[in-house]
Amino acid sequence: RLFPALRRPAAARCEAGSKVLLKEMDYPELEEKGFRPGQAMMLWKCLYGNNVWAHSHDELAGLNKDFRKMITDHANLKALTVKDILAASDGTRKILFSLEDGPVIETVIIPCDRSRTTICVSSQVGCAMNCQFCFTGRMGLRKHLSTAEIVEQAVFARRLFSDEFGSITNVVFMGMGEPLHNIDNVLKAAAIMVDEQGLHFSPRKVTVSTSGLVPQLKRFLHESKCALAVSLNATTDEVRNWIMPINRNMDDAKRLIELVQGIPCKINLISFNPHSGSQFKPTPDEKIIEFRNVLAQAGLVAFVRLSRGDDQMAACGQLGEPGEYQLPL
Ligand code: SF4
């Protein structure tokens, strides 16, 4: 019963080579594929829980012999291959992953303290949104990442860095790509990340960030328990269409106060991170503080977020293609 189930046409999109890619499935799908419930749960826990994060068939401890052989013969546990890991001077790491079909994506691990480390995951190769301050946007959209390719970034982060950094607690979809442009795979990946029997991230600590795709944003709010961040960059359509000149910052602060009136939210202020070929420069620290103070005086909760990993092109807006990028002089 198990083998034909794995070969059903519905599973075809999950295949890597001739094998089924297990991380394409959420738990109900894994059970549906013909795995007996007890065995399906043990497999799920080997993939995502119990500090196993299995990547090889040898790591599937506790499964019965026949079931393990069937998995070995017909399923792949791994969706990505590590190509390189770069360490920034502040402890931030950037992992470069090769995809099965060739492209490279980037994931950033941002340690804070032993009880909190954040993973910044990518959702696309390149991006169609073409934000003027973003290096990824210059690539154009090459490909949507699959559910497995998104989830695997979190699995690898835990496998590689849990010992060194302690608890890896937060996920932000702020890497390469506009997550809501790839909403089906992002919704499913986020659901797998918060599954209590698996990776078990708190939904409040998994944040999907969007540049503002409104229909998908509404769908996300209906279908996901995870948090949503809207990347504003400016507060008028005119300025959003072309990023604002620096001397108009305080006008934007005032409009931002009006814009979020009555919305329970916090504001994260993130400075532009430089990359070659961009005409933008980072906002001076004192301007950022001034902007934050205007918001705070109006009663808003506003934080200035430090850039992490910018000396290894690992900060916001700096992810791109290895070999093509360099820091501006
Ligand atoms: Fe895409 Fe985000 Fe970069 Fe805009 S900032 S181009 S949405 S990756």
TrEMBL record:
One of its GO terms (molecular function) is catalytic activity. It holds the Pfam family Radical_SAM. Residues 113-311 form the Radical SAM core domain. InterPro entries: Aldolase_TIM, Methyltransferase_A, rSAM, rSAM_sf. The keyword Signal does not apply. Coiled coil: none annotated. The keyword S-adenosyl-L-methionine applies. It comes from the Eukaryota. Keywords: 4Fe-4S, Iron, Iron-sulfur, Metal-binding, S-adenosyl-L-methionine. This is Radical SAM core domain-containing protein. The gene is gb05407.
